[in-house]
Known about the structure:
The chain is α+β, with helices and mostly antiparallel strands. Helix content is 29%, strand content 35%.
Amino acid sequence: MYRIESIVTSIILSYVDRYIKNFRRQDAQVSLWQGDGVFHNLDLDLEVLEQELNLPFSFVSGHINELLIHVPWTRIASEPVQITINTIECVMKLCPPGGRPPPPPERLRRQQSQPPDEQTPQSQSYRSSLVNKLICNLSITCNNFILKYVEEDIVLSMNIKNLSLSSVNEKWEPEITELSVTSLILRKLISLSDVTICLDKRNASGRIESYMEPLLYRCFLTIRLSRLYASPTASKAMSTRMDVFCEKMAFTLSESQVPMLMRMFALALALHRKQLTPQMSQTNLADNNSETSAEEHGADNNGCDDSWSTWVWSFVPSILPLSDDENLDEKNQSHTFHFGFYIDNFTLALKVGIQSSFHPY
């Protein structure tokens, strides 16, 4: 039993220590041996997250108020390891000029400081099987997840009251799953409750003086994620399918939020076209976007005569894959990604402010 505890504890702590900066592994090891570990005020390792996600954004800050890890030692083969995060907040921005620096030598030494275990091939096979089973069946619950993106005077934030991830079977019911010759699909069920998206404007000091009405308020989403593997020992999936289900989605957009939303859309479009470099400023982005828009519409575009649907559809050829993108490398061709979004009831409310010249006096 002690050997199983040592293996499982080492696996869990290695993942936590990788993404947490101020993590004391010695104290955590004793807590996990007792079945439960509670940790407070943890700072995320932002450089590791940026390298793992490989996004055109950089993390400004990342903090976890409370992390709870529960390991069911007596039922380790039939119940998942439960990870609960209470209040996590991350702030992101566009990558600064110069790209990301390489990881410091201290991190490399920390990752390579663990001595290798002298194990027989049989014990190594058991360890590998146990690692795959634990990782594939982790149960993650996050309460109060806050993600913010800052772009000059714009703050785009998303708040999720509860986020849960669990392994499920072919009927999408919670169950311990594992890759085998007869079952090469791993399924995950992700539930998001009370999803709120806000778009606000901050002042020169970085504070939001008055909060605007949320773009999306208290929406519930269910995500079904399935990955198909070529064999039980494959490390990467050959096909991924993600289906998002939403019963009701209601967006509200005010007049003051329209220019901010257009700036965010122009930024996303420039990133997709790879026309936005780290050296480009917001002014260059606006000029480049206006020139590109003028070239796309041409002389046939009469401005106000076009409808909203025609204006939105004019961006579609730029969003869809271009013909030059067909020459992909073999690694990208071997993986297929399917995405579906299903909404039962969708509403969009546009609020326009009207100035009145009436004076009661």
